[in-house]
Specification:
Shape: globular
Structural class: mainly beta
Pfam family, one: Glyco_hydro_28
Organism: Cucurbita maxima (Pumpkin)
Number of strands: 32
Number of domains: 2
Number of helices: 4
Keywords: Cell wall, Cell wall biogenesis/degradation, Glycosidase, Hydrolase, Repeat, Secreted, Signal
Family: Belongs to the glycosyl hydrolase 28 family.
Oligomer: single chain
GO molecular function: polygalacturonase activity
Length: 468
């Protein structure tokens, strides 16, 4: 990633320290220390092989170069190169220490394809040119309505390069019910999916103009994403940047994301997620959820966002759940975040509804142990912080430390409903509306909810939102 961007990002972070009348309650000191200190381990990039192009040897041993052009790919952006890519994949997947090369300067038209593993150890997918999707929705393969490029059952594989994955989403967006009210709401393909895989590295790629979501990490573990750029117009519908579902031990760092939906979204059965040095905007912010839709169980735990800059987004850091769900969001830390003209900088919404109406329901996804530390910037709305929680399952142990949010043309407030917590250091606007831990509104964190390992996960192969 551009060094100037990183320096600018770090320079814009305002860390506000101070002393106020608030102090940490004695009984909560241990919990605060735990939330302040827990982390998700980041692996040393030097331990990951990277290769220049073209290269077929490294200091760790020989590499076999598999060039898609050698399988009759044309790369003119018009000729269908799908079969060439599939044949190149078969050869690379069956070869130890292979480098599958998409050459620079080429523009390769590729239709919906599942690139299946398991493959031989040490595979590198080196993308230097552009992979482009067909632009006409009616020509899409009906057998793969929700995928464009899907990689499944890989282990110890690396995706890297300066190339572009372009979803050609313009006509898909025009057919969206969000853009054209006369059209039915339906799903559309995701540009890049990594599914049921482990020990995966993704570095340096650009993913742009996806039909819907840009990049999904599903049912995977130990995934490292760095220096990836995601780009789509701010009015492109449902074009989430990076979507993490049913995955553990995922690190996303040094990424710049501009979309028409969530920059990063984390949903059910995900744990050990770290986001670091993230630029977001336009878009809907960085979200946990939505969870609990259709009375389902949603569990997300151990999430860290450390160092981010959000500009002109609908939301800043958000947790959103549907009424009627069950499960929990627990042990989350948002820290070192700078916001500029963000509509809802800090928001918990247990009444999330993307329909016209949603009937009130008593059950809810339990939200607890959420820390906001060193958050600063400007908002476009009166409510800089909003904690809209369930009466039956109130939010508990919301911790605010060194928060300073202003409105450029007026005063700011904090909205609370059924929310318990406290602040220390500078907290502006005041969060006095949070109830104390001894108030009857506070629900115990010992509420009996299933652990992550016990959750019955959905059986469908792809966990992606249907268009709403």
């Amino acid at each position: 990633m551009d060094k100037f961007f990183l320096l600018s990002l770090l320079g814009m972070l305002i860390i506000v320290y101070g002393v106020s009348g608030s102090i940490v309650p004695d009984g909560d000191i241990d919990m605060v220390k735990e939330l302040e200190s827990f982390d998700i381990e980041e692996e040393d990039d030097s331990a990951v092989d990277t290769y220049a192009v073209p290269v077929w040897r490294s200091e760790h041993g020989s590499k076999i170069l598999i060039n898609v052009d050698s399988f009759d790919a044309v790369g003119d952006g018009v000729t269908d190169d799908t079969m060439a890519f599939r044949k190149a994949w078969e050869t690379a997947c069956s070869s130890s220490n292979s480098v599958l090369l998409v050459p620079k300067e080429g523009r390769y038209l590729v239709n919906a394809t599942k690139f299946k593993g398991p493959c031989k150890h040490g595979m590198v997918i080196q993308i230097e040119g552009t992979i482009v999707a067909p632009g006409e929705p009616e020509n899409w393969d009906p057998k793969l309505p929700r995928q464009w490029l899907e990689f499944t059952k890989l282990s110890a594989a690396t995706f890297q390069g300066d190339g572009i994955i372009d979803g050609s989403g313009e006509k898909w967006w025009a057919e969206s019910c969000k853009k054209n009210k006369s059209r039915p709401c339906k799903g559309a393909p995701t540009a890049l999916t990594i599914e049921s895989s482990s020990n995966i590295r993704v570095k340096g790629l650009t993913i742009q103009n996806s039909q819907q979501m840009h990049f999904i990490i599903a049912r995977s573990k130990t995934v490292r994403v760095s220096e990836v750029r995601v780009s789509a117009p701010g009015d492109s519908p449902n074009t989430d940047g990076i979507h993490i579902t049913q995955s553990t031990n995922v690190v996303v760092e040094n990424c710049k994301i501009s979309t028409g939906d969530d920059c990063i979204s984390i949903v059910n059965a995900s744990s050990g997620i770290k986001m670091k040095r993230i630029s977001c905007g336009p878009g809907h912010g960085i979200s946990i959820g939505s969870l609990g839709k259709d009375n389902s169980t949603g569990i997300v735990t151990k999430v860290v966002l450390d160092t981010a800059f959000l500009r002109e987004t609908t939301n800043g850091v958000r947790i959103k759940t549907w009424q009627g769900g069950s499960g929990y969001v627990r042990a989350v830390r948002f820290e070192n975040v700078r916001m500029e003209n963000v509509e809802n900088p800090i928001i918990i919404d247990q009444f999330y509804c993307d329909h016209t109406t949603c009937e009130p329901q008593a059950s809810a996804v339990k939200i607890s142990q959420i820390m906001y530390r060193n958050i600063s910037g400007t908002t476009t709305s009166k409510n800089a912080m909003k904690f809209a929680c369930s009466d039956s399952f109130p939010c508990s142990n919301i911790i605010l430390s060194n928060v300073n949010l202003e409105k450029t043309d007026g005063t700011v407030e904090t909205y609370c409903h059924a929310a318990q917590g406290f602040g220390y250091g500078v907290v502006h606007p005041s969060a006095d509306c949070l109830s104390s831990s001894d108030n009857d509104i506070a629900a115990s964190d010992e509420t009996q909810v299933p652990e992550l390992e016990a959750v019955q996960l959905p059986t469908e192969r792809h966990i992606v939102h249907t268009e709403l």
